[in-house]
Write a structure and sequence with these properties.
Layout lengths: L2 H12 L20 H15 L5 H5 L4 H6 L3
Helix pairs in contact: 1-2
Length: 72
């Protein structure tokens, strides 16, 4: 899966356009990265990658790059 495809998954979870994200963005300062988007992100990663993320893993996410790394 390409980086752009992973960015699309994250953008969909956050209900924003993929163009609004760059790898160095701080998600903790983005109002779109709220509890609902976190749950949506966790569900999407589970559905698309068969990977069950632990809450602690997602709580440790600070940047877009951190979120993308969870999809590997």
């Amino acid at each position: 899966m390409t980086e752009n495809e992973k960015l699309k998954i994250l953008a969909e979870a956050m209900d924003i356009e993929v163009e609004e994200l760059s790898e160095d963005d701080n998600l903790t300062q983005n109002p779109a990265w709220d509890s609902l988007s976190v749950l949506s992100f966790m569900a999407s990663v589970g559905a698309k990658f068969g990977k069950k993320l632990k809450p602690a893993e997602v709580q440790a996410v600070v940047t877009v790059r951190d979120a993308l790394n969870l999809m590997e």
